[in-house]
Design goal:
It is built from 14 helices and 9 strands. It is an alpha/beta fold and 326 residues long. It is globular.
Length: 326
Amino acid sequence: MDVTICIPTKNGGDQLDRVLEAVFNQKTDLEYEVVCVDSGSVDNTLEIIQKYPRIKLVQIQPSEFGHGRTRNLAASHGTGEFIFFITQDALPASDEWLDQMIRAIRQDDQCVLGFGIHYPYPGCNLLDARDITMHFNGFGMDNTYYWLDDPQRYAQEEGYRHLLAYSSDNNACVRRSVFEQYPYEDVEFAEDQIWTKKMMELGYHKVYCPHAPVYHSHNFPLRQYFRRYFDEYKGLYELHGYRIVPRGRAIPRAVAALIRSDLRYIRHIDLPLGKKLYWAGYAIRRDTDRHIAGYLGGKYADMPQKTQLRMDRLFSQQYRQRNRKK
């Protein structure tokens, strides 16, 4: 078997159906299988999966789900030389998505990981669409290989560490021979980047493959971003020791700088005035939440355990999701 495609599912609904249809419509000579691990769907997800007889379905209790743990379980139920991780809302945007990724990894014997571009879905909100596009364009316009080629720079330059550690298992593929030696850690957040960081430090390579695209974006309610930013920056501190601002008193200046940047972007877009005013208000709220939640997430590790628990209850989306499963 060439490839095992692993998809964690829960209440994926019709979007999952579109994803699976795209997966099974790939133009490829590769032999591949699909493993779905479902953690307690109560919609039509199981019926959708059962429409595709080539899928291996594994069912677990909601309380058993973990971002790293569940993907390890899915991988263990397959035999492919490569393990391709996607999510139930990551829609392959090309019928050569699978071929392009595997070809890119195979071109370098030291390459143990490939990650592909994300396109924002049509209708994605203005600022997220911009951020997703800019983020992935920053990795290159063609297949681009990365490895830790400058230890001194790695030790001194935070941006370089972030660049090397980044991947996203919304759309990523790993070599089974290495993954079975070093499976994902059982963590609440950033299992993919923790793994990638370890691979870079062990001397392996990764490839960014813009020719293996998926559609993947979210239009979260504005009020939800605070919780997401808290979890994101808590994870970034654990991974890189990164804090969005070093001290609380630096928040107003940082917020103001980001708001000015976003307002310049909005001003130059061809939109009616009413829309521009809407997005200006949206940017002000979201940029403020990013820095306040990011500051709290970055300080989390310094807090006593009781305070950490209180912060999780108040601010963490991951905490809410975990406890909703119990």
